Amino acid sequence: MLRRNMATNMILAIVLTVFVSATKAGTGYIGCFQDNSTRILEGTMTSGSMTVEKCVQRCSMERKLFAGVEYSNQCFCGSQLRPYAKRPDSECSFNCGGNSGQKCGGFWRISLYNTHRYMGCYVDSKSRILSEKNTSNNKMTTELCLAFCKGHGLKYALTQYSSQCFCGNSLGNVQKAPDSECSYDCQGAKSEKCGGFWRGSLYLVVSTKAGTGYIGCFQDNSTRILEGTMTSGSMTVEKCVQRCSMEKKLFAGVEYSNQCFCGSQLRPYAKRPESECSYNCGGNSGQKCGGFWRISLYNTHRYLGCYVDSKSRILSEKNTSNNKMTTELCLAFCKGHGLKYALTQYSSQCFCGNSLGNVQKAPDSECSYDCNGAKSEKCGGFWRGSLYLVVSGTGYIGCFQDNSTRILEGTMTSGSMTVEKCVQRCSMEREMFAGVEYSNQCFCGSQLRPYAKSPESECSYNCGGNSGQKCGGFWRISLYNTHRYLGCYVDSNSRILSEKNTSDNKMTTELCLAFCKGHGLKYALTQYSSQCFCGNSLGNVQKAPDSECSYDCKGATTGTGYIGCFQDNSTRILEGTMTSGSMTVEKCVQRCSMERKKFAGVEYSNHCFCGSQLRPYAKRPETECSYNCGGNSGQKCGGFWRISLYNTHNYLGCYVDSQSRILSEKNTSDNKMTTELCLAFCKGHGLKYALTQYSSYCFCGNNLTNVQKAPDSECDYDCKGAKSEKCGGWWRGSLYLVV
Questions:
Q1: Would you say residue 160 has pLDDT above 60?
Q2: Of the ranges 59-68, 89-98, 323-332, 701-710, which is most confident?
Q3: Smallest Cα–Cα separation from 307: which of 264, 353, 263?
Q4: Closest CA to 469 of 338, 391, 478
Q5: Taking the complete model, does pTM exceed 0.85, yes or no?
Q6: Going along 17-61, which residue ranges are E strands?
Q7: Sign of the CA dihedral with 380 first, then 384, 386, and 389 last
Q8: What is the CB neighbour count within 10 angstroms for residue 21?
């Protein structure tokens, strides 16, 4: 306690977590929270015959980020949330005064929503309120329409007639209608309303940071953070990113309003607050282009080249045209539809798809048509297309040549590999890059050697653990940014992150990430072995050496599940798989858990063995398991023919489920479901058990009711997001203990 009271400047580790929105039918629902007289939302309050829509609309009109309904008829608006406790949804059980089919909080319980800038229900006609872009989809939701309009750079979005979406930058003579006239359920989310008959639900599209590959604001100096070329002129973010893409560079940086830097190597200079990259871009005053010795860094989107197209089309899954077409607009459109490749053509056209047919490369000079929306960019040509790889949330960089010296200077491991498994492993090792190669090899490091970029077609080997993914090739490596660990930073009583916090005597990095992700917050920070802090913004931060973030996580020490030190030999005490690399106990236990094995064993400093059967070999004194772990010298990883054994404490087996559900407190579904995704979802809600089922479903709870064990063979459905994993079956669930 004395140590804590003295800690005016404490040291912590910051970890980046990807924002995952809450899943209450896409309406922007965040969750049920405790409230009190100080109020979780610091803004205004009103009351009356309340509905969720009425409160969200009111808060949207006030330009607030959050709306909260409480005690049936109260509505609160604000853009700041006090760090009050999340509660089970069952405690927000009061019917809304204006709609008994909705829940409006409870007694000192508030149902919180993101506002999505809802503007109301409006009368539409054949001349259309919004006429610049439109689409229809039999799975239409508010989110889908907002993403479509945002992808086209348009300001307003309107849903109508259950499945239609309209976009535009200006509103004509509009006539307001009662919300009750926008009563048609969205086809993709029955709990949402998508307008009505000549009635539209109107939204203000919340814009995002210019450039979809934005990394952050960084310090620069005369040595330059980016080691490549520099140019200057009337600069925009898009112009710089495209130029660096054309040079096949990984990174683009804009600085001092009009300077553009390109390179594939980043020097380790300090990240700075966004407020220090405050200079308007010379070519677009609505964008920021660094500052005085401050550079705004971006990933380049991976320009693949100019290609010959034909009537059969290289990319045929989705297309659009726009008389304001830009590279960014096409990339956003394709990304919005979840597609991998984007191609601009004939100045105004955009094509998207997940696979490339028989493609023929053309000289870049044949993709010479200016983009209609950006004369400084090129959007293909006559039957010529400018082809891009759409950068997804995975942080994909590209396919690169490798050799025995290795492009990544860090550690290597092998096994039944997936992209997610490798990226997660490298993140846990605090490395900046992850690379998968030769189907089953994973490399981690924070330094890239300057090896040549190769065509995507040369990284064609299927991943051993997921045949739907590519894991490099023969001396070819698929590289990813880990997008996670940001470094060790100085903290103080005012806190770098202050929106949410928790402590747990079983704290791990993953547990903190899941907690912050569950609350929809962007940054996660672990501190003092057992504490976790979350927030969406960083104040004035001061970097510290990684060596000062030296406290072991309480939940990831050698005490968790430890069985003992055992003799081993060439027949092996554990009958399963083996891998090696810069090993830690946590890394081995996690890997074996993912393989659904009951036991994990570390041996000879860097070997990891997984299995569910133990041969009856002799237990040995602890002093014989004395080799330090290669990845953590503070842990012991067996010895010479000595193995340190652990229980994985994770997979519990395959169980029969029914309509009454084994686990009923929380559930979600995702067409990219994996075991890790379900575990993180349940962990984020503070629940003890997780169960995957029917390939894409996840159920959570703290109690198991009358359960009936089934053979593991009956949980044989592949997980939608990882074909190498099993996610239950038909009324069968793969059950896990959430660590």
A1: yes
A2: 89-98
A3: 353
A4: 478
A5: no
A6: 29-34, 45-47
A7: positive
A8: 12
